[in-house]
Amino acid sequence: MKHLRLTIFFVFLFQLHSIKAQVVFEPSKYQVYDFLDEMAAERLISINTFARPYARNFIAALLDSIDVNRDELNKRQQYELDFFLKDYGKELHVGKDWDRRRDVFYYSDSTFSVTVNPILGGSVMVNENGNRIHTRVGASFIATAGKFGFYGSLRDNSVTEVLAAPQYLTTREGQNYKSISADNTSDYNEFIGGISYQWKWGDISLLKDRYTWGNTERDANIFSGKAPSYAAISYRLYPVKWLEFQYMHGWLISEELDSARTYLTPHGTRKIYMNKNIAANYLTIKSNFKVDFTFGNSIVYSDNGIQPVFLIPFMFFKSADHTYNGTGSNELGQNAQLFFDISARPLKKLHVFASVFVDEVSLSNMFDRDNQTNIVSLKLGGTWYNALPNLHLTAEYTRTNPWTYRHQIESTTFASNGYNLGHYLGENADEIFLKAAFKPWRTFSAIGSIWSARKGPQHEYDIIAGNANVTGLQFLESVDWNQLGMQLNLNWEIINDAVLFAKFTYQNSEGNPVYTPEYLSGEIISTELGFRIGW
């Protein structure tokens, strides 16, 4: 019996020793994502780019496989690979005796590792309307223990001009501002983090983060990551190389007052929001022709707390909603969606993609101009990597038909904290986006971009003769707002996580003033200089 116990003990130790890291998610704004996209286009790795963020151990494994073929990289790519391995090598090595980045605190042994670093940042934007100052301070950590992963970061921010309130049409990340003063200044903070458990062919996480679903170089039209982070349970399976599955159940923030539960207190009114949840899943199938097919569905639901039927990972949510809530009225039921995505790398250096988000569609009336309900968003795009050495060219078009992302029941809209979960322009809008990214040396990029965006009037929902007035809606019958923009963005990551940046932006916004902050309204040229440590 004693020998059996010793055997089990040593097997357990061996298993822990063989585990170098577990699932810890990495912010999707980091430059390593661009590097991995480039390497996938060069066919040095195979990667599903549909969903972000990625886990650090996944990134590390990809970098390690690229390192095996480093002779196929040019000098800039080799230097970038070595630069990223200084950080993500933590997932490949035990202890401190290797060529690694500098951290405020780092510890690693065969069973436990932890890294702690600061988050700092500041920027100044200048245009004819004055100065805009943004400061940021906080800290982050990542840790692993056995098969568990942990991560967290807290950022406290202050801005003298709010540029990303829910009504503004911008790709800037949305924030839950504490309050916005009369002169448009505000503070906000955000915690992102979670705990995960991983096994050989899957993982499960409880986390609060931003989620991006859909291939894009600009702004995704399925989940864009624009809304403030929210809590979710995420369940991922990758049993074979050609198949990936993910399920997510999240707790959204409705900001819709629940009058039945709101009550008086001795000093005022206790206000309670209506509950709002989202369930979503997707399945990616990888073919032998360098094409990834992804299809999935989601549902935003409210009123009755967590519904067990929406906790079934592989559920077709609209069908379940029909069973539980019927189909007799638009006032019944929840808000379900379908989506599809194709990502192809048919030629070396070329990545093309398409995403379709379906809020509602009638196949029988699809081509009937007066009776169609084509309530969809479509994105088409592609990037030609190293069209010339170290020069990447991108083109992307997005079109979103009227009523997409919306719902007549406010507690089930495709939104959280008032921010649309999908494309930043929302319904009845389109955008053409072009980009050229030049990377002459390690982690330095000069990115020039130009875009033209249009948005039509917001559709006003009504019941006419007993039917909802969402049939036959015409795309951009008139233009309520439009913007032409050009930007030169310079970024240099001097050491790991420490970035200097400069942005020079021209934009001309016309039409409905509610969509543009006064600081950037009309024809304006802005210069922004700054730095950041961490994200």
Strands, total number: 27
**Cα-to-Cα separation, first versus last residue:** 52 Å
Helix and strand content put the structural class at mainly beta
Domain tally: 1
Rg over C-alpha atoms, rounded to the nearest angstrom: 24 Å
- CATH top level is Mainly Beta
Number of helices: 5
| Poorly predicted runs | 1-19
**Average pLDDT figure:** 93
- The CATH architecture designation is Beta Barrel
Q: Please outline the major beta sheet.
A: 18 strands, antiparallel, barrel
CATH superfamily: Capsule assembly protein Wzi
Helix content: 10-25%
In terms of DSSP E residues, the strand content is over 45%
Stated plainly, the CATH topology is called Porin
The global form is globular
Distinctive features:
single chain, 535 residues, mainly beta, 18-stranded antiparallel barrel, two-stranded antiparallel sheet, disordered N terminus
Explain what this protein looks like in three dimensions.
This is Capsule assembly Wzi family protein. With 535 residues, the protein is mainly beta. The chain has one domain (31-533): Beta Barrel (Porin). Helix content is 12%, strand content 46%. The chain is built from 5 helices and 27 strands. It has helices spanning 2-18, 32-41, 56-68, 75-88, 317-325, and strands at 51-52, 105-108, 112-127, 130-145, 148-159, 186-199, 202-209, 212-213, 230-240, 243-257, 263-265, 268-270, 273-286, 291-302, 335-344, 350-360, 375-388, 391-400, 415-416, 419-420, 429-438, 444-455, 463-464, 467-468, 481-495, 498-511, 522-533. The strands form 5 sheets. The protein has an 18-stranded antiparallel beta barrel. β13 and β14 (291-302) form a beta hairpin. The chain starts with a helix and ends with a strand. The model is unreliable at 1-19 (pLDDT under 50).
